Amino acid sequence: MNEWYFGLALFLLTLPAIGLLLGFDRILTARLQNRVGPPLWQPFFDLAKLFDKEGLLMNKGQVVFALMGLLLQACAMGLLCMGGDLLVTFFLSGAGSFMLVLGAFSALSPFSHLGAHRELLQIVAYEPVFFLAIIAVGWYEGTFMVDSLEGNLIGVLPLVVLALIPVLMIKMQKSPLDLATAHQELVAGPYVEYSGPYLGITKLAHWFELAILLGFISLFYTNDDALWTLMGRLLLIIGLVVLVAVIDNTTARLTRGAVVLTTMTIGIALVGANLIILALYGLGGLA
Amino acid sequence: MISAKWTKRSPWILHFDTGSCNGCDLEIWALLTPRYDVERFGMVNKANPKHADILLITGPVTRKAEERLVNLYNQTPDPKLVIACGDCASNGVPFFDCYNVCGGVDKVIPVDLYVPGCSCRPEAIMDAVVQGIQMWQEKVEREGER
Ligand code: SF4
What we know:
The structure holds two protein chains of two kinds. Chain A is an all-alpha fold.
């Protein structure tokens, strides 16, 4: 059984991979704006600096919430890497996102509170879509266990992947759906009262959170050849990140209501339509 | 301690206007445009003292802004660096001896670098920031030894 080692290696690779992906995203954004942009390693430099700085705290609860967030996201990611249950991963990660909201509410700053409210709205907008996407995968496969998923899901559930794009945009804090971290109006939203190493902890939690979504999306592509599977999954992720960066640089931020409405209705409609089509053709493990 | 080689590559800035004529502010904003693109050095305008490493201050510090400037300075976690941008911020020059100004940022908080000019050119600010990163790294190292 070398699968155990494989899962562990995957888990250890998560953070470096997400850091590189975010660095790539920043360079891409800069190029789209006709700038040179930062080096590829910039997210790691930022993180190193944050952990080296003095941390100012509003109250001790903030640290607890930040650490809990990181712990929950890391657990969820670990479960995903080890081939565990998708639903448990989803709920753990959701609880982790909620910790950020609690941390933001614990500080007495209007910006922090506004950010927390907006983060809640975002959770309301994307969680149902993400959840339904997982349900759709489970419905088709007849199982929620990652290591027993088989077949090329993107062929049968293409609309689900489409529905996950707005979810990815929210999780990557990208315009037009970046309500909570709207830097022009809210400074940094829920992150505003965190500084130094504590900000670093929330950043790490965010990296894991992103990794869980991207990891889930990558499950949609499988090939008989392991190498092709890896290449295909990487291409899928990078393609989506490029798409999100392009949309980010060509659109303005939506209002709160519009974000919730569009993400939720379009997402649920897409997943629903996909399931109806599958049911009509009598496909799916539980059909 | 994390190597200063890494940490100095990520100076986040906070820009605060203490009552300038907006001339210097425009030049600071010019830094973020494609022409000067300071994100090359990892600089990002964070607009939040708690996330900032380098404070870019403009204006002669009016009496009203004084308290706020001190507040912002105290909220910025160490190690931090203060750059006074423009003649106003350096010694209050066009507003010299005015009844309502403190006459320069260094009357209120410690300043590490002064950028001359009314308004200061973006090139000069960039020069100051690059020098500032050097000073900031030394500060980081000093802080690390402690
Ligand atoms: S130094 Fe000159 S340009 Fe700059 S804020 Fe003062 S008066 Fe305006």
